[in-house]
Amino acid sequence: MTNARHRLAKISLNAFSILGGDxxxxxxIFLVYAMIARQAGVHEFGQLSLGLLLLYTFHVFAVAGLxxxxxxxxxxxxxxxKRLLLHGYLASLLPSMLSMLAMIALAMAMQxxxxxxxxxxxxxxxxxxYALTMITEAVIKGREQMHLIPIGNLPGNMFLVVAxxxxxxxxxxxxxxxxxxxxxxxxxxxxxxxxxxxNHRDCRRGRIHPxxxxxxxxxxxxxxxxxxxxxxxxxxxxxxxxxxxxxxEVGLLSASFQLLQPIQMAYRSVGHSAFPPLVSAARSSGKxxxxxxRTIIGLMLRLAFxxxxxxxCLADDLLVTVYGNESFHAGSxxxxxxxxxxxxxxxxxxxxxxxxxxxxxxxxxRIVMVNVLTNIxxxxxxxxxxxxxxxxxxxxxxxxxxxxxxxxxxxxxxxHLHLGRELLSMSPAVAAAIACIILLPxxxxxxxxxxxxxxVVIAYPRFETASxxxxxx
Length: 473
Prior knowledge:
Order of helices and strands: HHHHHHHHHHHHHHHHHHHHH
Structural class: mainly alpha
Distance between the termini: 5 Å
């Protein structure tokens, strides 16, 4: 029991640390978006959104699957962290250069307007800095020292917000903000590497062997396949929307995604923090992985419903208030559709990392390939016919397909989750919360607050934490 509590506490602490780093990154970009929305407009907002979408897509190819591979290797061999980091840096140089060229080529091939191409071209300079930072974070995660991540992300994001404010107040446009993004990523890389160095002096660096870097790159190809295809799938909706509509619709979709990021970051941070313990559990058996995964998922599902309920009920007010521009009212229905994805996504980070921990790398790759095919087919049809709302509906369909695949493959290859009982125990709280919103003759805000209170009172006491922790131990 004590060991199980210690492991869950360690996962929680690491999850908060990773979440802190993600919050700093997303908050920095979010504040920049908010400044552009207020001082420029939806079109300029869409230009930066499109540029950052491509940056996030191509930096995945720049790291070439190395982060997952390095985290797993460092978790197995902590004393080799510095050696693995340096060889990871060397291994990422070639894919980083190729990714920069591909990003510029895609911008030209899509025939965007000149200003948009300029913004994208400037952002390509951030690709190698992004890649090297992700590799550093991966090694830190493998050592389970996630508290260093938010500290390392702080200087770059502070510079991003302050410098963006100054250049926009001085009358410069989105291209200048893109230059600020590049410098901020360089600062983040420097601070992250410095933190790693001063906290891992016990690790031996060893000699640099290009052949070892090549071996790391070769072994990470299966992760590159998963991450790269997933990145293509994630960018499909924005690219299709930019082709069938305009930068304005891309901006509205991106604005909705930004409001979902706090919850999505929580999901991802839990998944990343659970990876090293899942790797350790996998040394015992698939049953141990299943028990740990089931404990975490049970907690995550309890948080998913109130998050989705708040976003759905406050969609219109959130968009207009946060971005300070009435033009964003047009994205409220799309945000309500996207709110349902918050009910489907909490399981995937845990199940995906569980499959990786058990060495089911190719299974995850097949899941991602099916997801991307779904994104392309469904996205093409719905976005072509319905524009922004079609893009939101496509994301919802893709989330459902992704969840079903992860759940089925985990049950087949690892262990049975038996989540039906958990969902059944949540149903009274969910029904009561929805009844408060629909039936109470009070102000909508008061109804939402009442629904959340009723949900917490009914749902959480029914969660049998003690018995589940006993199963983990």
